[in-house]
Design brief:
Strand content: under 5%
Number of domains: 1
Number of strands: 0
Distance between the termini: 169 Å
Mean pLDDT: 84
Number of helices: 2
Largest sheet: none
Structural class: mainly alpha
Shape: rod-shaped
Order of helices and strands: HH
Helix content: over 70%
Low-confidence stretches: none
Length: 152
């Protein structure tokens, strides 16, 4: 502000001191002071906005850094889980193969048991038939012996 006053003082010295000239210089001075005040206010506003933007930018950078750290952590966890899933899949496939083999063995065992049961049934029937035959034969022999003894 002092610089504007000095400038206008020098301008006044160079002009004639008529009322019209002095009024014109005073208006110019008044406009210059007003413009200077507007410029100062605008500069302060821009400076405040710049500081605000700088603070917002710095907060954004901090947030991005945190997000990057979290993303890196998530990526590590994802890769670890991916490897665990591969291992689980391998174990699951291995267990499935064992289960299928066990089912096959169980089916074969059931078939053997059924065949054994069928053969046991046939054997039981054969033994029963043989026993009946033997009992019948013994019974005929007993009757023959009894007849013979009764004849005596």
């Amino acid at each position: 502000m002092d610089g504007i006053q000095k400038l206008f003082d020098e301008i006044k010295d160079g002009f004639d001191s008529t009322d019209e000239s002095m009024n014109y210089i005073s208006e110019l001075q008044s406009d210059a002071v007003e413009l200077h005040a507007d410029c100062c206010a605008h500069i302060q506003s821009v400076t405040a906005k710049r500081k605000n933007l700088q603070a917002t930018y710095e907060k954004g950078v901090e947030r991005l850094e945190k997000i990057n750290v979290l993303n890196a952590d998530l990526l590590r966890k994802y890769e670890k889980r991916k490897e665990e899933n591969k291992e689980e899949t391998r174990r699951s496939q291995h267990a499935t193969q064992k289960l299928e083999l066990l089912r096959s063995v169980c089916t074969e065992y059931q078939n053997c048991l059924k065949q054994l049961d069928d053969e046991t049934t046939l054997l039981d029937n054969a033994l029963r038939n043989e026993k009946l035959w033997d009992d019948r034969k013994d019974s005929k022999e007993n009757i023959s012996i009894q007849k013979f003894l009764s004849m005596l």
